[in-house]
């Protein structure tokens, strides 16, 4: 392909602003897919993504477009993940293209993820084309959004294209803008091969499929290539492009985006951002590469311990396709055998947990999500704590440091008070507070630990869904952090132990034991429920003994009602685990940790 006729771009947008719908339209209007093959939201390949309306795996499509100047152009759209957990992947995808469509819902305006992603695009030196979507809706207000884009993002919005991805209005103008406003890629076809590994995923027929952007040189089938990060060599058995279905082609040249397969067995061996060259070539690695680092850890245990092997199989399979998901076996006194798993963030955790439960039909107990703490021992050594249950003897610990984040929150004025209060409650330190129109932008320094559990849910609920949120990790800081244990009937339940700030321990402990008291069913005996730090009890509740059989209140009269009650009890039983003599229902593990 003539490099001057290539345009590579991505779409920057906040969730629900219409990225997928617009992508579908661009594909459809250039007849890249026959109408009947057009599935809604072509680019989101996994069902779970479609259901949750989020895009996780980067994906790409090559579109041939004959422009008004009579020339045919090759447009490569790279889809970027739309969630904060995948910031590194976003930044890599952005490096693989020269420009972005900045899609803003003209009924809503700029949101936190619009900002976060546009910063990635600006970092990658992108040319930006503002696209104001949903102009078919009565609430659409283009001049307000234009003003906001200029104020908040600081780019010229006078040339913005007014689009309805729904009706198709403005699609032609968008395609023309891609051709005329975005630059063609640069690259030297005669230089040694240099390509960026943009993404990879596992396919059961072809093995690992690697998405690449060629920077310099050419890549052909049959060649031997090497990955610089791990110095592995692979024999390329297939190269091609997505239209959006896989189409095999002969070679990829500079500026092009396509895939290769090379009998690679594991996604783990292919790292996003890595540099690829020919086996015998020497090239400088691309800047900014870093291996995926899980930041949130939790234990996954089968509710039914007989399903442990099934769980192992499910986790092995999921890990094949997800290099950023880490796991190792774990055994817990209370929960038996399970896995300690590492995730890029909470959403990532939820997606994996959902897939295990749904696709593999395994009920899970998820222990409290935890971040990685640095434990500074008195002897000067530092260990990393992934699981609060492993906290060392406190008398040997000098201090504990925790990861912090910089959080950016955009919210309509009227909810600002609630947001500031929430951030304050979570030990946040305000760094910035600015206004753009009727919206406020608050920037907070927060402990990641205070955010991983339910911060996002809380934020959504106190702002009626109007706030948007984005974060990045900034580093570690020492604080007064302790391990809080929970004892049920005098037995420690390690799956409920958590790291807390000393000043918040009483409040958290109290909330936890009160919740557990409601969640644990009564037994034939009294059950003390306690929260403790070291040996010191900081909160205590007692669940009183059950007085009589639950069916007694039916007075033996209504047999069907009695049976229903017993059935209900039985179903409830299935989802419980025994701790010593006490049954604790599965939902207790999650609910007890939610802070109200
Ligand atoms: P994520 O994949 O979650 O990031 O969302 P997205 O940005 O891809 O948004 P999506 O394309 O899924 O659109 C979100 C919703 O807005 C869907 O219900 C679309 O049907 C709707 N929508 C998209 N574009 C338009 C438009 O131009 N007009 C109207 N009325 N609705 C639109």
UniProtKB/TrEMBL annotation:
<dbReference type="GO" id="GO:0003924">
    <property type="term" value="F:GTPase activity"/>
</dbReference>
<dbReference type="GO" id="GO:0097216">
    <property type="term" value="F:guanosine tetraphosphate binding"/>
</dbReference>
<dbReference type="GO" id="GO:0005525">
    <property type="term" value="F:GTP binding"/>
</dbReference>
<dbReference type="Pfam" id="PF00009">
    <property type="entry name" value="GTP_EFTU"/>
</dbReference>
<dbReference type="InterPro" id="IPR004161">
    <property type="entry name" value="EFTu-like_2"/>
</dbReference>
<dbReference type="InterPro" id="IPR027417">
    <property type="entry name" value="P-loop_NTPase"/>
</dbReference>
<keyword id="KW-0648">Protein biosynthesis</keyword>
<dbReference type="InterPro" id="IPR031157">
    <property type="entry name" value="G_TR_CS"/>
</dbReference>
<dbReference type="InterPro" id="IPR000640">
    <property type="entry name" value="EFG_V-like"/>
</dbReference>
<protein>
    <recommendedName>
        <fullName>Elongation factor 4</fullName>
        <ecNumber>3.6.5.n1</ecNumber>
    </recommendedName>
</protein>
<feature type="binding site">
    <location>
        <begin position="133"/>
        <end position="136"/>
    </location>
    <ligand>
        <name>GTP</name>
    </ligand>
</feature>
<dbReference type="InterPro" id="IPR005225">
    <property type="entry name" value="Small_GTP-bd"/>
</dbReference>
<keyword id="KW-1003">Cell membrane</keyword>
<comment type="similarity">
    <text>Belongs to the GTP-binding elongation factor family. LepA subfamily.</text>
</comment>
<keyword id="KW-0251">Elongation factor</keyword>
<dbReference type="InterPro" id="IPR013842">
    <property type="entry name" value="LepA_CTD"/>
</dbReference>
<feature type="binding site">
    <location>
        <begin position="16"/>
        <end position="21"/>
    </location>
    <ligand>
        <name>GTP</name>
    </ligand>
</feature>
<dbReference type="InterPro" id="IPR000795">
    <property type="entry name" value="T_Tr_GTP-bd_dom"/>
</dbReference>
<dbReference type="InterPro" id="IPR035647">
    <property type="entry name" value="EFG_III/V"/>
</dbReference>
<keyword id="KW-0342">GTP-binding</keyword>
<keyword id="KW-0472">Membrane</keyword>
<dbReference type="GO" id="GO:0043022">
    <property type="term" value="F:ribosome binding"/>
</dbReference>
<dbReference type="GO" id="GO:0045727">
    <property type="term" value="P:positive regulation of translation"/>
</dbReference>
<dbReference type="InterPro" id="IPR006297">
    <property type="entry name" value="EF-4"/>
</dbReference>
<comment type="similarity">
    <text>Belongs to the TRAFAC class translation factor GTPase superfamily. Classic translation factor GTPase family. LepA subfamily.</text>
</comment>
<dbReference type="GO" id="GO:0003746">
    <property type="term" value="F:translation elongation factor activity"/>
</dbReference>
<comment type="function">
    <text>Required for accurate and efficient protein synthesis under certain stress conditions. May act as a fidelity factor of the translation reaction, by catalyzing a one-codon backward translocation of tRNAs on improperly translocated ribosomes. Back-translocation proceeds from a post-translocation (POST) complex to a pre-translocation (PRE) complex, thus giving elongation factor G a second chance to translocate the tRNAs correctly. Binds to ribosomes in a GTP-dependent manner.</text>
</comment>
<keyword id="KW-0378">Hydrolase</keyword>
<dbReference type="Pfam" id="PF00679">
    <property type="entry name" value="EFG_C"/>
</dbReference>
<dbReference type="Pfam" id="PF03144">
    <property type="entry name" value="GTP_EFTU_D2"/>
</dbReference>
<dbReference type="GO" id="GO:0005886">
    <property type="term" value="C:plasma membrane"/>
</dbReference>
<dbReference type="InterPro" id="IPR038363">
    <property type="entry name" value="LepA_C_sf"/>
</dbReference>
<dbReference type="Pfam" id="PF06421">
    <property type="entry name" value="LepA_C"/>
</dbReference>
<keyword id="KW-0547">Nucleotide-binding</keyword>
<feature type="domain" description="Tr-type G">
    <location>
        <begin position="4"/>
        <end position="186"/>
    </location>
</feature>
<dbReference type="InterPro" id="IPR035654">
    <property type="entry name" value="LepA_IV"/>
</dbReference>
